[in-house]
Amino acid sequence: MHIGLVGLGKMGGNMRTRLRRGGVEVTGFDNNPDLSDVPSMEALVEALPAPRAVWVMVPAGEITHKVIDQLKGLLSEGDVVIDGGNSKYTDDAAHAESLAEKGVGFVDCGVSGGIWGLDNGYGLMCGGEADLVERLLPVFDALRPEGPREEGFVHAGAVGAGHYAKMVHNGIEYGLMQAYAEGFELLTAKDIVTDVTGSFKAWTRGTVVRSWLLDLLVRALEAEGTSLGSIRGYVNDSGEGRWTVEEAINESVPMPAITAALFARFASRQDDSPAMKMVAALRNQFGGHAVESLGGDDAAADQTSGGEPEQGAQEASAAEAGPSSGTGSTSR
Fold first, then answer.
1. Across 12-18, average pLDDT
2. What are 108's strand-pairing partners?
């Protein structure tokens, strides 16, 4: 089997190596000439035997669209394009329809494994026509983890199904990471727990929460310490978590854990939350609760919009006002 591979970055470059280890001949193209096997996309297509198979491994969105459009002009009837990037599943039907005008097939393939895939193999989720997927099985078998095929590869359904399955996979990943992270914060907050890293490590075998993510969490703690001192608590999202939540809304599927995990990432990017500033201001307005200035000093507990302390603030300190609604007392 001989395949073309467009995009030789962290994932694509490792995939080329794993494919070659698995006995698949690979001709790769990248805009970086130091990484590329050939000088151009045209040279890539010319190097492949017909019927050709070209795997696209570039960033989702406009770059993927451009690469597939270019391949459409170069490939011939009977060839096939595989989109292995994190494309939105709704893009797949358009790509398949466009390539079909030239008689070129299309398969979408969600790929999981990250930087560890070179040695561990990649989890693969494919969508497309059964005959095309069958034809590409030598490629998928070389990329997936060792063991039963069904434990590392699925033909999930029609065009778009592979990227849809990968989208949901990543949404679940958001929820799992958030649950581990919240548990980590609670363990570090309790003074009686003196070995947080050891607690997590003890869960990696024989418990129901064991997972590869948990193994990676322990690895991070052993490298950074429980303070995670070199890491800022700022978390980006690649888009698939958002798409998962959008689909949950479209399909009326309750998804509170994954949605909360996505919103937690948004919160991580705020140095000073406008929403929380408003909550503080409202508590001050109705109950005279203390607010903290940007300089870190507590403002007067009775600083309300009218300049006059409310009844509760006259009778109780901000701490005593507690859960009240302005009365300064919780008694009836």
1. 96
2. 83, 127
